[in-house]
Specification:
The complex is a heterodimer of chains A (about 575) and B (about 80). Chain A is an alpha/beta fold and about 575 residues long. Chain A has 17 helices and 29 strands. The N and C termini of chain A lie far apart (about 65 Å). Chain B has one domain: Non-ribosomal Peptide Synthetase Peptidyl Carrier Protein, Chain A (Orthogonal Bundle). With about 80 residues, chain B is an all-alpha fold. The chains are: A alpha/beta (about 575), B mainly alpha (about 80).
């Protein structure tokens, strides 16, 4: 059996992403012996890939792409399997001066059309002219690319066979400048109107430095373990690029394998003495859900130093249950490192200091529903509170301010929009000036999140931009509303999709629908069809509320105001 | 050993039964989300049980085509008898 690539490398001094571009970083890492290990669905080592091998292969792919006729700046869609091929093609694009665009994989049963349409819209929006996937995904990719003008659609093997005659040695490779765009990221944006975040080499390096040096304080003993998908910023930047640019050996488990057998993640940390691993809250939740006391004997999680959490609203009770389940396996509460970030800042904005553990503040529910805008000091009787997590202090490279509706900065413990400024803020949304201007002004990015600052630390209480996140997947209300309004009984503008807190503080999708039908039986039947439809879209059950006509709140320009609809609903003002 | 479609469907239906919190009747047309009310995480729990039971791996690319119990049973039968 092959040995996994080791954690330590005394021959190569650690550098924390202090490079001009990702290729300089790759070529430095290639001088050492570290690299990435890819594991199978049963947790067996399938493919070790040293940074040296990665570098050689990426150069070869770069030459093939240039030899094939790809020209600087063209977009290359990569269906983001957790594999050596993905990593090498992502970097091969850099050598050819192309922009890789990681695209999602299917995550659950059903939804074929929705999935292929999503890929289609994403490739269309960035004008991709190349698309790569593993062979099993090819039929879906072909279907998604229908109607698009593409120079190549296929697998790595097909591409390498087609370019077998290219005189590789004769080809001159590109060298990216630090202001050049390195890749496009599609983790934000609605399915029907996607927009890709354009990240430059400079932003990428700045954020990788922030993550590695200021965030997790990477040391020579660190080893990362990841099941996060490469089509998400936390997987792509946090685990692939931050580890590559700081020469950290990393063990990868495919996301779909984690979803089926989540304890493989912990087993891998235990066996390989992993020290750094991130997950959104739901990853900790499913481990706790699938855990059996008999699992503990095989696990030793004492090496785990940074259990990063981010990507969705962090829920304290999930972290406590995880700790309770795994404390006997050597997991300590101080290991949790809540963080805050978003694709529009490349990835990270803030981290709590390692070994601090998670801290919470109690926030009046009326603050969360938007009824009041300021935190009251003392805990009072008769008021409902929710725990909100301390997401840490901003990285030194970041300025963070809380703004009111008019863009005026607010003081500590005042609720407003979280706005950030720093070197890893995106260049903009690719080919979408309008969407860029809506959130980016004078270097300040309006994150769309609501929150406050307390003792210098960021607390996120909700999202202004209406996103609904269910089990780690982002859903745009526009997409849900559009689907619901295709029902013959409804008209455009009749629905509002919002996220409401469930019994355990989790997000539950709620659909508020203006309904003109009076007959009770027909109403119940309509509600049930809406529920089914939403369920097939988001993969979770929803609350459907039928409202009288003309009750959904509008802005002065007549557009639906989901924020107001949510406030009114939570305050009990919107009822059938 | 070749297993009949019928046997495989019955086994899959039994495994699905553990996730049948609504207590509905399970047939080939039973849908995972609409009828059984399973969220995407529960679906993956179920898939892991099916894979472990039959000692197979259901490839990712066919998941988008699986909406009901009958389709899963057919997919399993195809993999098992290959």
């Amino acid at each position: 059996m092959r040995e996994p690539i080791p954690t330590h490398d005394p021959s190569l001094p650690r550098r924390h992403a202090d490079f001009e571009n990702v290729l300089d970083a790759l070529e430095y890492a290639a001088k050492g012996i570290r690299g990435f290990n890819f594991y199978s669905a049963r947790g067996e080592l399938e493919c070790p890939l040293t940074f040296t091998e990665m570098c050689e292969r990426a150069q070869e792919i770069g030459r093939r792409l240039v030899g094939f006729g790809a020209t600087k700046g063209e977009r290359v869609a990569l269906i983001a399997e957790t594999s050596d091929d993905f990593v090498c093609y992502f970097l091969g694009c850099q050598y050819a001066g192309l922009l890789p665009v990681p695209l999602p994989l299917p995550t659950s049963f059903g939804g074929r059309d929705g999935y292929t349409q999503q890929l289609h819209q994403q490739m269309k929006s960035c004008g991709a002219s190349y698309a790569f996937s593993a062979s099993q995904m090819l039929p879906l990719l072909d279907e998604a690319a229908e109607g698009l003008k593409m120079n190549f659609i296929g697998t790595a093997d097909m591409f390498e066979a087609q370019t077998a005659d290219v005189a590789l040695d004769a080809i001159v490779l590109e060298r990216p400048q630090s202001d050049d765009i390195a890749y496009l990221q599609y983790s934000s944006g609605s399915t029907r109107f996607p927009h890709g975040v354009a990240v430059s080499h400079k932003s990428l390096m700045a954020n990788c430095y922030g993550i590695s040096y200021d965030g997790v304080h990477t040391t020579d003993d660190d080893r990362c373990v990841s099941w996060l998908p490469f089509y998400h910023d936390m997987g792509l930047v946090g685990c692939f690029l931050a580890c590559l640019t700081s020469q950290v050996t990393t063990d990868f488990l495919r996301t779909e394998d984690f979803a089926r057998r989540p304890l493989l993640w912990l087993k891998l940390i235990s066996e390989n003495r992993g020290t750094i691993s991130y997950s959104p809250t739901f990853g900790y939740e499913i481990c706790t859900r699938r855990f059996k006391p008999s699992d503990i004997a095989d696990l030793d999680l004492s090496s785990w130093r940074v259990a990063g959490i981010g990507g969705d609203m962090i829920r304290a009770e999930v972290l406590r249950s995880f700790y309770d389940a795994f404390k006997d396996a050597g997991f300590t509460e101080k290991t949790f490192v809540p963080s805050y970030g978003l694709a529009e800042t490349t990835l990270a904005v803030s981290f709590t200091p390692p070994q601090q553990g998670f801290e919470t503040e109690l926030v009046d529910e009326r603050v969360l529903s938007g009824e009041i805008k300021e935190l009251n000091g003392e805990i009072q009787d008769g008021v409902n509170y929710r725990e909100v997590i301390n997401c840490g202090i901003p990285l030194p490279q970041y300025d963070v301010e809380i703004w009111d509706e008019n863009g005026n900065p607010l003081g500590e413990r005042k609720i407003g929009r979280v706005c950030v400024k720093g070197p890893s803020v995106m260049v903009g949304y690719y080919n979408d000036d309008e969407a860029t201007k809506a959130c980016l002004n004078d270097g300040w990015l309006d994150t769309g999140d609501m929150g406050y600052i307390s003792n210098g630390a960021i607390y996120i209480i909700g999202r202004l931009k209406d996103l609904i996140i269910i089990n780690g997947r982002n859903h745009w209300p526009q997409d849900i509303e559009w689907a619901v309004e295709q029902l013959p009984e409804l008209r455009s503008g009749d629905s509002a999709a919002i996220s409401i807190p469930g019994d355990n503080n989790e997000e539950v999708p709620a659909i508020l629908v203006q309904c003109r039908i009076r007959d009770e039986k027909s109403r119940a039947e309509l509600a049930s069809r809406i529920r089914d439809m939403v369920q097939s879209l988001v993969g979770s059950s929803s609350k459907v509320v039928l409202l009288p006509p003309r009750t959904l709140p509008r802005t002065s320009s007549g557009k639906l105001s989901r924020t107001k609809a949510r406030q009114q609903y939570l305050a009990g003002k919107l009822v059938s | 050993m070749t297993q009949s479609q019928e046997e495989i469907f019955n086994t899959v239906a039994t495994l699905v039964g553990n996730f049948n919190t609504r207590g509905i009747e399970i047939n080939k047309e039973t849908k995972f989300t609409a009828d059984l009310d399973l969220d995407s995480l529960a679906v993956m729990d179920l898939l892991a049980e099916i894979e472990d039971h039959f000692d197979i791996t259901v490839p990712l690319n066919i998941l988008p085509d699986l909406e009901n119990v009958g389709q899963v049973a057919d997919a399993v039968a195809k993999i098992v008898n290959e």
